[in-house]
């Protein structure tokens, strides 16, 4: 959707939100609205509460109106950003029909909405999966791009981590028999639509607490203004009602009050933009508080695949020999590890002349869990194998003295050793290395600076785990971890009063995801994991948890910064309005008019206009969030206090003066 | 400035030592004097059937309220029938109903706003049994609730401490011994301590004059120690019998600064010892809060001092030479000791005066007024710290949001409910001051008490309610305040200002006590840094100034602008 269209739609939506019943939800803006109505009445009957200028009242009324409208506009803009996404999702939903399998085995066409939990459906190539479910029969590729945006199809089959399917995705080949697991209107897709639309957007605890503060400030300032009137009357100073309303609106925190809901919506939207679906705003906020991150090694810290990085021959064998045999053994190996061995050997200049001939004539011995090795039998009778140390030494006639040492060496630096055998002779070791993802070490250092501890979970032995942990720069690790170990770690950290976040995908992870304060499930994972988590990453990229933490922090920071800004603004507004109000009765008050504003009228209008205009000017900050750099709390506080506290005090002095200079020729 | 510096230098070590002692009393540490104190305390516990069991926050505040209510009832009836009781050598009459109401609320709430004159309104028995008695108990009440509050911020449970035990211990171990010491020092300086009737003299002009006497020293000592402030005589500590010399003036100032400051020290120690910093004197957290209070205090002090030093331009215009504005001040104290006394009595919310605040220059008068409007610059015993803690929590709330964390203090989350109570407890103060001031200027009964025209009249009204709401008790004495209107309204303001705030604040502490403690790291807000001190001061001044500036603009600021043109 282009920007112009978005602004136009938001403008219209902002007008619809002028409904008093809607405004009532935002107490700060509701006070402005009541002020507006009073001043409108005063514009029509200027002499209702003593003498007052109709023109002045009309100006105040129009500024109050745009103040409210700007606030609505900010909210509408924030809402508008998610709307396009919802449109696409809704289309997917409405057109879906399903083939239900009845108890007697016959098929029946029904609308997707009619499906109940427990129903069996069959989905054939080209059809859309009607609702969330588990595969009970069949194997098929599924296009999940409607939800993830990822166009490569995914294989789905019965049992295992790839058995869950999401409503709205499309089967692209073969067929699947699916048992529906969610009630109509409660599927993942429905939840997503609701979340993005903001219909189920509930105020988060911090937002409620902040709202309480804003309401209290509003009450205090209402009290200030209401009591000012009799006190001024006592001193025979007459104050116009429009001026008092202008003072009230300037003092109550309209800036943050007007932007609060936009900040919340935009924060959720930033999470969605990252292709992460947060089940509630509360989860996003909680992720800002995370103290400990529990991360799986494989796929999160390291690339899922190990890469061959060296050939280590035993004594009496040349490196060339070992390399050639390693290359031979992997020629037919389609696994990433096998391919990396080929790549490495070819980089090191292996002789590739007979490649095609060998491939055509050789017998491939595939890897099985029982044998734990693979290889080829060449036509001329040569047998080449590679496999785990334990499996290989059983088959060899003789174990070289230094083999065990080489194997240990590789393990101790976090690598996986693959032993290569020609015939029955052990030649040496291929060093397969876990590659730590680029930039992660720096990321973890940043997290540490922010006070967040990282713990790595891995099935590796302690030696390997320690090596990887050191390389990645995590703060702690659990080696040989089982799913229940994760829960134990989470509970131990929580007992220390820490907020724990973790990522997971398997059914095994579900209890840990539920136990963690923030659980991020991978979309590729099981439904159990997704249900236990409070966030789902559609791209299935576990490192994203770090970004989510940052977004959570940014959300709170934006609220805090704009609240500070809003309160700090009041100082300048006081210096504009108080002298202006009292100058007629007490000419000496001009001493306090430090901005040298032109006249009492121009001063009040300028302050009020500044108060209105600052709302749209801050919309970009509300949408993007205040800039966040990982640093410790003290530096962050100093920085934000300087920008939004001190800045909030100084900027309105400048702004009000400029507006005064601009409007003076217009009103005099 | 020499005298001011000297007093503040003496204050610092004294308050740290007293704070350490107060901590020992509050935490029931073993001490040498246990042998003397324990038997007395145990006799009291047995006599009053006190179980010494730990109380929940709710039980604690209920015990406090009931105890205070009983004392109010007894005190009220004593005042109403004092004429017929003993120790009335000067034949003083019973006190009128609304005045008795005002007086009793005033003393029970640690305010000591006096709409009567001691020498003509109270018998010696009333002075001792009502006034001095309540000076001890109201101070002990403030201390007790503050300790209950502070302990709950640290504790992992809401069931901690016993009101009666805290109350008895502080009187026996702190207030009585200190009062005795200060009393002796004042007697040494010339303050009378007697139950003999007034002396009637024949002056050199041949007319006769009553010289009012009484158990003055014993009242003076606890009046300051307990941040009470109600004088034995109408003119309070400006009279030579209450405050004879410069030395007695310094003793009285130090006495009223002692315990409010010590309460901050106790809190600092509680926090520091939580982290096993056993040898701390004040602790980092305590230092932050103490520093914030000190900054506000010193700023106020300097303004009063220079404003008074500058004098009144209108007197200059008359061609009269003046050394500062000496109207309403005692020559034996001068500008310096008067300015300091004024700042101390309003910052530490005592309300005793050694000069007439009504006669201060407009800006000089604005400072005591603003101190009471803030009500957090050390404040009265215990309650001042609790008021400041509300601003601390507020500052933490905003600061935590600014660093992107859910607000927490000492590991405990500040959520909606705490926020609501905090906001209410901060709200009560301006509602009472501004609301009642507006009410007073709208009613003829209210305006009837005002003795000055224009802006100064409004200052008088604001001052009276600010003094009542802050439980300070000093007055812009020009106000003719012994009328039904003023007695009743200020009585209500004092009552709500004291008890509503206390209830809400202890409720917040109880809520926090029940919360799980979250871990702290470099990612959580540090509340014991200089930045936080600055931010705290800014929040206090900003909220305070934003709330009261319009009213102040009509009162003292207008006066100042008119005077200086």
TrEMBL record, chain A:
Its EC number is 7.2.2.6. Residues 95-197 form the P-type ATPase A domain. It comes from the Bacteria. GO terms for cellular component: plasma membrane. Pfam families: E1-E2_ATPase, Hydrolase. CDD domains: P-type_ATPase_K. ATP binds at residues 333, 337, 367-374, 386. Its main location: membrane. It is a multi-pass membrane protein. The keyword Ribosomal protein does not apply. It is found in: Cell membrane; Membrane. InterPro entries: ATPase_P-typ_cyto_dom_N, ATPase_P-typ_P_site, ATPase_P-typ_TM_dom_sf, ATPase_P-typ_transduc_dom_A_sf, ATPase_P-type_domA, HAD-like_sf, HAD_sf, P-type_ATPase_bsu_IA. The chain crosses the membrane at residues 28-49, 55-74, 208-229, 241-265, 571-589, 601-621, 641-667. It catalyses: K(+)(out) + ATP + H2O = K(+)(in) + ADP + phosphate + H(+). Mg(2+) binds at residues 505, 509. It is an enzyme of class 7 (translocase). Keywords: ATP-binding, Cell membrane, Ion transport, Magnesium, Membrane, Metal-binding, Nucleotide-binding, Phosphoprotein, Potassium, Potassium transport, Translocase, Transmembrane, Transmembrane helix, Transport. The keyword Signal does not apply. The system is composed of three essential subunits: KdpA, KdpB and KdpC. Belongs to the cation transport ATPase (P-type) (TC 3.A.3) family. Type IA subfamily. Part of the high-affinity ATP-driven potassium transport (or Kdp) system, which catalyzes the hydrolysis of ATP coupled with the electrogenic transport of potassium into the cytoplasm. This subunit is responsible for energy coupling to the transport system and for the release of the potassium ions to the cytoplasm. PANTHER family: POTASSIUM-TRANSPORTING ATPASE ATP-BINDING SUBUNIT. This is Potassium-transporting ATPase ATP-binding subunit. It comes from Lysinibacillus alkalisoli.
Automatic annotation (TrEMBL), chain B:
The chain crosses the membrane at residues 6-23, 60-79, 124-149, 170-188, 253-275, 287-307, 376-403, 424-448, 492-513, 534-557. It is a multi-pass membrane protein. GO terms for molecular function: P-type potassium transmembrane transporter activity; potassium ion binding. It is found in: Cell membrane. One of its GO terms (cellular component) is plasma membrane. Keywords: Cell membrane, Ion transport, Membrane, Potassium, Potassium transport, Transmembrane, Transmembrane helix, Transport. Pfam families: KdpA. It comes from the Bacteria. InterPro entries: KdpA. The system is composed of three essential subunits: KdpA, KdpB and KdpC. Part of the high-affinity ATP-driven potassium transport (or Kdp) system, which catalyzes the hydrolysis of ATP coupled with the electrogenic transport of potassium into the cytoplasm. This subunit binds the extracellular potassium ions and delivers the ions to the membrane domain of KdpB through an intramembrane tunnel. Belongs to the KdpA family. This is Potassium-transporting ATPase potassium-binding subunit. The gene is kdpA.
């Amino acid at each position: 959707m282009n920007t112009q269209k978005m602004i136009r739609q938001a403008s219209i939506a902002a007008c619809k939100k002028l409904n008093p019943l809607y405004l009532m939800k935002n107490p700060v803006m509701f006070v402005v609205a009541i002020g507006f109505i009073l001043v409108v009445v005063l514009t029509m009957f200027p002499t209702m509460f003593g003498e007052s200028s109709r023109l002045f009242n009309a100006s105040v009324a129009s500024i109050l109106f745009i103040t409210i409208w700007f606030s609505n506009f900010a909210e509408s803009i924030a809402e508008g950003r998610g709307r396009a996404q919802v449109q696409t999702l809704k289309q997917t939903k409405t057109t879906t029909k399903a083939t239900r399998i009845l108890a007697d085995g016959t098929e029946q066409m029904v609308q997707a909405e009619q499906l109940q939990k427990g129903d069996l459906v069959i989905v054939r190539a080209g059809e859309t999966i009607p609702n969330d479910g588990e595969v009970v029969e069949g194997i098929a590729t599924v296009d999940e791009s409607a939800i993830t945006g990822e166009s490569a199809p995914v294989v789905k089959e019965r049992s295992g981590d790839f058995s869950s399917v999401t409503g709205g995705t499309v089967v692209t080949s073969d067929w699947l028999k699916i048992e529906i697991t969610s009630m109509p209107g409660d599927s993942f897709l429905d939840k997503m639509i609701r979340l993005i639309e903001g219909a189920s957007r509930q105020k988060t605890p911090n937002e409620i607490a902040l709202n309480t503060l804003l309401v209290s400030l509003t009450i205090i300032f209402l009290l200030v203004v209401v009591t000012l009137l009799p006190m001024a009357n006592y001193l025979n100073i007459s104050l116009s009602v429009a001026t008092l309303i202008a003072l009230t609106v300037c003092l109550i925190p309209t800036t943050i009050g007007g932007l609060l809901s936009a900040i919340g919506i935009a924060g959720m939207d930033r999470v969605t933009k990252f292709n992460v679906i947060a089940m509630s705003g509360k989860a996003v906020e909680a992720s800002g508080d995370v103290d400990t991150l529990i991360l799986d090694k494989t796929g999160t810290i390291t690339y899922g695949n190990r890469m061959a990085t060296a050939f280590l021959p035993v004594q009496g064998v040349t490196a060339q020999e070992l390399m050639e045999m390693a290359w031979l053994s992997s020629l037919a190996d389609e696994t990433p590890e096998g391919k990396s061995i080929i790549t490495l050997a070819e980089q090191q200049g292996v002789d590739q002349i007979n490649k095609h001939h060998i491939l055509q004539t050789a017998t491939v011995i595939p890897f099985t869990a029982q044998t734990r090795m693979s290889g080829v039998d060449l036509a001329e009778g040569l047998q080449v194998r590679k496999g785990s140390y334990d499996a290989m030494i059983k088959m060899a006639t003789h174990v070289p003295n230094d083999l065990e040492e080489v194997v240990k060496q590789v393990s101790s630096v976090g690598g996986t050793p693959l032993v290569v055998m020609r015939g029955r002779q052990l030649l040496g070791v291929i060093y397969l290395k876990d590659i730590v993802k680029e930039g992660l070490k720096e990321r973890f250092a940043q997290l540490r600076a922010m006070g967040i501890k990282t713990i790595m979970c891995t099935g590796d032995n302690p030696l390997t785990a320690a090596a990887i942990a050191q390389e990645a720069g995590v703060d702690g690790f659990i080696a040989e971890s089982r799913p229940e170990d994760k829960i134990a770690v989470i509970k131990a950290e929580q007992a220390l009063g820490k907020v724990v976040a973790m990522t997971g995908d398997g059914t095994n992870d579900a209890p840990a995801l539920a136990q963690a304060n923030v659980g991020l499930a991978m979309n590729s994972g099981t439904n159990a994991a997704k249900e236990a988590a409070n966030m789902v990453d559609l791209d299935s990229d576990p490192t994203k948890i770090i970004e989510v933490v940052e977004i959570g922090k940014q959300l709170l920071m934006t609220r805090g910064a704009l609240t500070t800004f809003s309160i700090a603004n009041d100082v300048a507004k006081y210096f504009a309005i108080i002298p202006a109000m009292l100058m007629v009765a007490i000419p000496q008050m001009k001493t306090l008019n430090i901005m040298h504003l032109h006249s009492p009228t121009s001063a009040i209008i300028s302050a009020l206009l500044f108060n209105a205009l600052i709302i749209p000017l801050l919309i970009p900050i509300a949408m993007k969030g205040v800039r966040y750099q990982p640093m410790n709390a003290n530096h962050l506080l100093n920085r934000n206090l300087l920008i939004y506290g001190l800045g909030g005090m100084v900027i309105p002095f400048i702004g009000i003066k400029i507006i005064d200079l601009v409007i003076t020729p217009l009103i005099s | 400035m020499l005298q001011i510096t000297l007093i503040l230098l003496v204050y610092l070590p004294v308050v740290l030592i007293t704070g350490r002692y107060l901590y020992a009393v509050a935490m029931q540490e073993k001490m040498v004097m246990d042998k003397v104190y324990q038997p007395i305390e145990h006799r009291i516990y047995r006599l009053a059937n006190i179980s010494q069991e730990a109380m929940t926050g709710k039980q604690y505040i209920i015990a406090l309220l009931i105890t205070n209510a009983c004392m109010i009832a007894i005190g009220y009836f004593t005042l109403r029938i004092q004429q017929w009781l003993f120790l009335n050598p000067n034949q003083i009459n019973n006190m009128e109903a609304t005045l008795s109401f005002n007086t009793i609320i005033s003393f029970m709430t640690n305010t000591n706003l006096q709409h009567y004159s001691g020498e003509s309104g109270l018998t010696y028995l009333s002075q001792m049994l009502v006034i001095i008695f309540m000076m001890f108990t109201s101070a002990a009440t403030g201390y007790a609730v503050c300790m209950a509050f502070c302990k709950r911020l640290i504790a992992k449970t809401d069931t901690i401490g016993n009101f009666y035990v805290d109350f008895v211990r502080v009187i026996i171990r702190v207030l009585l011994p200190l009062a005795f010491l200060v009393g002796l020092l004042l007697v040494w300086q010339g303050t009378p301590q007697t139950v003999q009737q007034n002396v009637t003299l024949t002056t050199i002009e041949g007319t006769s004059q009553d010289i009012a006497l009484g158990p003055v020293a014993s009242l003076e000592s606890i009046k300051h120690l307990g941040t009470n402030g109600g004088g034995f005589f109408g003119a309070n500590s400006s009279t030579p019998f209450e405050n004879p010399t410069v030395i007695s003036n310094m003793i009285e100032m130090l006495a009223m600064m002692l315990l409010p400051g010590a309460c901050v020290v106790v809190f600092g120690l509680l926090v520091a010892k939580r982290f096993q910093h056993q040898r701390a004197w004040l602790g980092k957290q305590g230092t932050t809060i103490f520093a914030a209070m000190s900054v506000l205090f010193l700023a106020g002090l300097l303004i009063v001092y220079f404003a008074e030093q500058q004098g009144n331009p209108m007197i200059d215009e008359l061609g009269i030479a003046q050394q500062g504005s000496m109207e309403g001040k005692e020559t034996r104290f001068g500008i310096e000791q008067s300015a300091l006394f004024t700042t101390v009595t309003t910052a530490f919310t005592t309300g005793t005066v050694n000069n007439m605040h009504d006669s201060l220059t407009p800006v000089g008068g604005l400072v005591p007024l603003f101190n009471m409007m803030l009500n957090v610059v050390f404040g009265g015993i215990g309650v001042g710290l609790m008021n400041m803690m509300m601003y601390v929590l507020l500052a933490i709330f905003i600061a935590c949001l600014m660093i992107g964390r859910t607000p927490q203090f000492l590991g405990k989350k500040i959520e909606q409910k705490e926020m609501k109570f905090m906001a209410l407890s901060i709200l009560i103060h301006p509602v009472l001051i501004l609301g009642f001031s507006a009410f007073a200027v709208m009613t003829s009964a209210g305006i009837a008490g005002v003795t000055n025209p224009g802006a100064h009249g409004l200052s008088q009204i604001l001052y009276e309610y600010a003094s009542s709401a802050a439980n300070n008790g000093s007055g812009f004495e020009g106000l003719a305040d012994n009328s039904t209107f003023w007695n009743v309204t200020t009585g209500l303001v004092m009552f709500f200002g004291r008890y509503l705030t206390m209830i809400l604040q202890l409720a917040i502490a109880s809520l926090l006590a029940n919360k799980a403690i979250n871990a702290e790291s470099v990612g959580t807000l540090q509340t014991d840094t200089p930045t936080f001190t600055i931010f705290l001061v800014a929040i206090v001044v900003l909220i305070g100034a934003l709330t009261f500036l319009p009213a102040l603009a009509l009162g003292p600021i207008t006066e100042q602008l008119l005077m200086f043109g």
